[in-house]
Structures are given as structure tokens and as C-alpha cells.
């Protein structure tokens, strides 16, 4: 460079590195655009229908009329009640069954575990069909007990809907709990048993803290599934049990009131998003506590 300056020649400019076109950075936009189109566009259309008034203009008349109606309050109350009752029932029954299969294996426990996987793969209306064969007018319960007990009202009541949902969604709790139990070190149970702790105390002190994340995950899944369940309520013939999913179908298909059905759909979407956000926050807090404890 010194010789170049002595001869009065300008130094050569540094050569910029050649940038390569990385197509992988832009490939993510393709599935993102597909998700936005197939998920975002229907949501926009639903919101647009919810703001459509009876005269065809834009406004909040349909939203206000629907939200203050007695049918909406009844549907919202039934949806929340059935969701909470079914989720609690699934958690209690699922915890009991998973604990028995994992730590008190009985004859046929392996077959029961396989049947749990089969139930998960089945559609929900088959459970309702089984309930009809059991509790219907020509079912097994009626054949055994006769006319002394009428189970026909049980199927079409909120209790029957909750029982059917607990039957169908309990395997969604059992399977994660069995996975959590399989990762538990046997030494903890042996130490607790050697110290003379009762089975209930062993479960409360040793087992329960270890399955809290699995319970939270399975409970969150059950909440979302029962909240949006339509098939069980419809196939039980529970005409007096109005829920938001059934109201969406009745209002939009039967009575052809699409704007009102869109309002119900918006409420259902908001409930699902709020629950999903709360469950994600709960999962992060549980993960943080476990990380801090470790």
C-alpha cells in the first residue's frame, strides 16, 4: 500500500462480501399465510356478521339484543356449569383410575389401559349411544329395574350430559397421569412406605406434587374440550339444556338468524381464548416453580 501511495495511485476499495439469498427465511411465510387465511378470514367474517343489524347496516344492535336475552344467559350459565362439573369429574375419576392402574394393578388393568386408548380415538356420540343402550327406555337399566326408575329424564338432563362428558373425556386425564407416574422414581415411594406413611399420605406428600403439571395440562385440555362440546349435548336429546355451541347451531341453522349465531360464536371464541391464555400462564408459573425447586 505504501508503494501504491508513493506512485500516486488510489488504494483499491475493499470488496464487500457477497450475500447469499437464503430462501429458508421466507418459507415460513407460506404456512403463516395459510393459517392467517383459513383461521383469520373466518373470524373476520364472523365478527362482520355479528355487527350486522336487522336493516342490513352496521351497528351493535344485534350484539346488544343477543347478550341481554334470557336464552343467552341460560346458555352461558349451562355452558360454564357443565364445563366446570365435567372437568372436576374427569380430574377426580381420572386421578383415581390412573393411580389404581399405576400402583395397584388389578386383573385386567392392562386391558383397561388399552381400552382407554380406544376411547380417545372414538367419536363422542358413541358414548351417548352407549348411554342410550344403558339408560334408555329399552336399555339394560330399564330391563333390570323395570318401571320403578325412569332413566329417560336422566339422559336429557344436565346431570346426564355431565356424566356422558366425564365418561368420554376422562381418558384425556388418565393418559398424561400414567405418563407422569412412569417417570416417578420408585425410591421415593419405597422411602415413604418404609417410614410407615399411609397410602393417602404417600399420595398427598409424594405423588400429588409430582403430577400437578400433568393435572394442569390434562385439566386445561378437558376444559377446552368440554367448553366447545356439541355432539354429546345434541345426541343426548337434552333440548332443555342450552349451551353456547348448541345455540350457535340452533340460531344459525334452525332459525336462520346468522347475525345472532355470529354473536354466540364470538362469545365462544372469547371464552376459549381467555381460557387458553390463562392455562398458558398457569403452565409457565408451574414450570417456573419446578425449575426453582430443582
UniProtKB/TrEMBL annotation:
Locations listed in the record: Cell membrane
Keywords: Cell membrane, Membrane, Transmembrane, Transmembrane helix, Transport
Transmembrane stretches, start-end: 26-44, 80-103, 115-135, 202-227, 261-283
InterPro entries the record matches: MetI-like, MetI-like_sf
Entry GO CC: plasma membrane
The ABC transmembrane type-1 domain, residue ranges: 76-275
Membrane topology (UniProt): Multi-pass membrane protein
Any one GO BP annotation for this protein: transmembrane transport
Keyword Transmembrane carried by entry: yes
Keyword Repeat: no
NCBIfam families assigned: PRK15050.1
Protein name in the entry: 2-aminoethylphosphonate ABC transporter permease subunit
